[in-house]
Amino acid sequence: MHERGVRVTPQRAHIWRVLVETGDHFTAEGIRERVGGFLPGLELSTVYRSLEALRAAGLVSESRLPGEPKVFEARPASHPHLVCDGCDRILHPDPEVGRRMMEALDADAGGFVVRELHVMARGICAECAGGGEGAAGSSMA
Amino acid sequence: MHERGVRVTPQRAHIWRVLVETGDHFTAEGIRERVGGFLPGLELSTVYRSLEALRAAGLVSESRLPGEPKVFEARPASHPHLVCDGCDRILHPDPEVGRRMMEALDADAGGFVVRELHVMARGICAECAGGGEGAAGSSMA
DNA sequence: GTGATTGCAAAAGGTTTGCAGGGAC
DNA sequence: GTCCCTGCAAACCTTTTGCAATCAC
Question: Tell me, in Å, how far CA of A122 is from C1' of D11?
Fold first, then answer.
């Protein structure tokens, strides 16, 4: 963090720690909840500003999933998010998938150099397809 | 539109027309501006509701790009959006690219059936990489 | 004629910003 | 010591919702 020219504060350290230790993605609010145990007074605006600082330094990537607000995670994300229309869960397939998609894109992007890749797919997960499900929509969009 | 069970109103017809004729994607506000010439009183809330109706009918897809609010376009999008960090333009590569990425995903999604695919990549377009550019940010994130 | 749809207006988020005090370097 | 960062509060913007009149079917 120092190395990236980001000034280190307790708030930023905790936020960063949550992202790195879980390796998961969170909304700003979600991060505040997690860090709240250690820094009770942590403000949402501080979370946003810290995340912005980390993002500018290339330590954090931000993306948007359908219903939810912005989500943030450590390091360039680049892995696909599969949103199931049946159960609304968000699945993370094998990282290999992301790599292949990145390759497919690179190969034919006409000189565009990809730095960050965000993939979001909607569909039906294996469980919902196999058995019963709740709110599946019309099939082929 | 009738065939999809969507009630046809002037508002919806114009909105749909903008999306189809341009084949481009717009924000709700952008759509209102375009349609405004024909339907001066068109409300933003109506735009949102119309788009939702069209989306539910499978005629429109909605996605989210980083800075911008929701964007809508006709028919299942499924094509990658390449956002250039140099010039901020949004490029649409060869549809073939989308197909390949879809295949890459399908092949290894562990039984997840993909219905709609949204791809957003940030990077540098060929023009900005090659020559001079305007508002390039820091290069390697 | 009936029920969905529109315009209007207000609410409900999520995200950003101004400011003064305090902290990192 | 200086400048950046934080908390607090308010603003901003997009998106959603309630209601009565209107329109499509």
Answer: 35
Partner residue opposite B108 with nearest CB, options A96, A103, A122? A96
Tell me: the pLDDT tens digits for A26-55?
999 999 999 988 998 899 999 999 999 998
Residues A32 and A8 grouped into a single domain = yes
Q: Structurally, how many domains does chain A consist of? A: 2
- Maximum CA extent, chain B: 51
Nearest to A111 by CA among B37, B123, B81: B123
Task: Name which of A133, A90, A128, A134 is nearest B113 in CA terms.
Answer: A128
Chain B residues whose beta carbon lies within 8 Å of the beta carbon of residue A121: 105, 109, 112, 114-118
Task: Show which positions of strand D are touched by protein (CB under 7 A).
Answer: 4-10, 13-18, 23-25
The residue whose two tokens read 């990145």 is A102
Same domain assignment for residues B91 and B108: yes
CB distance A78 to A116 below 8 Å: yes
Cβ atoms B14, B38 nearer than 8 A: yes
Res A55: pLDDT: 87
Q: Which of B50, B73, B96 is the last residue of a domain?
A: B73
Joined together, the tokens standing for residue A113 give 């150099």
Q: Catalogue the E-assigned strands of A53-140.
A: 60-64, 70-74, 81-84, 90-91, 113-124
Bridge partners, residue A15, by sequence: none
User: pTM of the prediction?
Assistant: 0.74
pLDDT of residue A76: 62
Closest residue in B to A58 (Cα–Cα): B141
